[in-house]
Amino acid sequence: SDWGCFSERFNWCDNLTEVSPWLYYIFYVLVFGFAVSVMNIAVTTLYSEIIGPRRQGTYQGYFQSAGSTGRMFAPLITSYLYSGFGPKAPWILEVVQICTIMGLWIVFHKKMVPMKIEESDSRTSSKEEH
């Protein structure tokens, strides 16, 4: 069946297996209704802890700008990949990105700690330090 795929436009339509719309609806609600919102809260909290007492507003603005830039370019990239190569290409890109992020997370997990600035004791004089 051509439902959802235009075989006269895309030559990869004939090789697709049909997926139940109910499976799509359920996972769409779970991923976008639950997982994305929980992930955004967790990542924003982790980022603010790592920033520490620096200029939170500025760094959170950079963080949000990077996310907005990604949300601007991702549809262009995935639609290009989907149109040219079928649905497997965007999924492969997504899996590669997730594996890369998880790998970086594992490598740098010990560096992701809250920033602490040690306060100097103002009562000590230069004579006591020597």
TrEMBL record:
The chain crosses the membrane at residues 22-47, 91-108. It is found in: Endomembrane system. InterPro entries: MFS, MFS_Domain-Containing_Protein, MFS_trans_sf. GO terms for cellular component: endomembrane system; lysosomal membrane. It is a multi-pass membrane protein. Keywords: Membrane, Transmembrane, Transmembrane helix, Transport. GO terms for molecular function: transmembrane transporter activity. Its main location: membrane. PANTHER family: INNER MEMBRANE TRANSPORT PROTEIN YAJR, MAJOR FACILITATOR SUPERFAMILY DOMAIN-CONTAINING PROTEIN 8. This is Major facilitator superfamily (MFS) profile domain-containing protein.
